[in-house]
Design goal:
Layout lengths: L5 H22 L8 H24 L5 H24 L4 H24 L4
């Protein structure tokens, strides 16, 4: 195998970014989630997308390693909130919805932050 060059890394990052943008555009036509489980699944997908965007942004130099670490730390909190929501849903649906709403708010904020850094 040939070692990865900066040009190859940029090309791979560009391809991943393009694929992500295509997936987001394709999902725009999907109706809004109407059940807790659908919202939870959407939140997990959103968190995964943020993680992928963060990796691409760091690889292409759009964000610094410190910025990447901040996003990752927030994603870990989001994942904990999603697990808490999932665990609490049967016993306490109100608490589960609260955890889920908080996680979705943070995911949206991270997506906005990455977009402000030029990550698409």
């Amino acid at each position: 195998m040939k070692p990865a060059t900066p040009a190859n890394r940029r090309a791979a990052a560009l391809l991943l970014t393009w694929l992500f943008a295509w997936a987001v555009a394709a999902c725009a036509a999907i109706p809004a989630a109407d059940t807790f489980n659908k919202k939870l699944a959407g939140a997990y997908i959103g968190a995964t997308a943020v993680a992928q965007m963060t990796g691409t942004a760091a690889a292409t130099g759009k964000i610094t390693p410190a910025q990447k670490d901040e996003v990752v730390a927030k994603l870990l909190i989001v994942m904990a909130a999603l697990k808490a929501a999932e665990s609490a849903h049967a016993a306490n649906p109100t608490a589960a919805e609260s955890h889920l709403t908080t996680a979705l708010t943070v995911i949206t904020g991270l997506q906005s932050y990455l977009a402000s850094q030029g990550v698409r």
